[in-house]
Prior knowledge:
Layout: H1 2-22, E1 40-52, E2 57-62, E3 65-70, E4 82-93, E5 96-109, E6 116-117, H2 120-123, E7 133-134, E8 137-144, E9 150-157
Parallel strand pairs: 3-5, 6-7
Antiparallel strand pairs: 1-2, 1-4, 2-3, 4-5, 8-9
Amino acid sequence: MRVASMVVFAIICGVLARSLWQSRQSIVSELGRVPEGIPVKVKIAGIVTFSDIRLHRTFFEDATGGATILFPGETPGLNPGQRITVAGTATRQGKHVVVTAAEWAIGGIAPVPSGRSLTIETFGAEEQQNRMGSIEGRVEAAAVDRFAMLALTLRSGK
């Protein structure tokens, strides 16, 4: 009986969490609170910083953070600087939350956010995830990965 009560309680908490997220537009920084294992409906708006139709993936930012948007099927041809609103399902994948788009709309053009100046130490910081950034350094190795993306290994940087 006790286990059944706990399961019912967990289901109610999940339903409440989903309904709270669905009731309004969220800001990107709130995506960090998406619970593990519970997909939630979200609606977020921001400015496209990078989009790759081959990867079905778009990165965008609002004033509070960056987000990864996946487009199942055919990916729209989005360009940096486009202001978009996305409605979809947010799921936690380890440390990262990814939004799978169900609906999206372009709402104009805006300047692409200027990237923060990063060091090697700050490059992988959680608050920098999915955000524009720039780093200077000495390249130790360069390779093109299976997605035709350039991967650099830096020896030192500032």
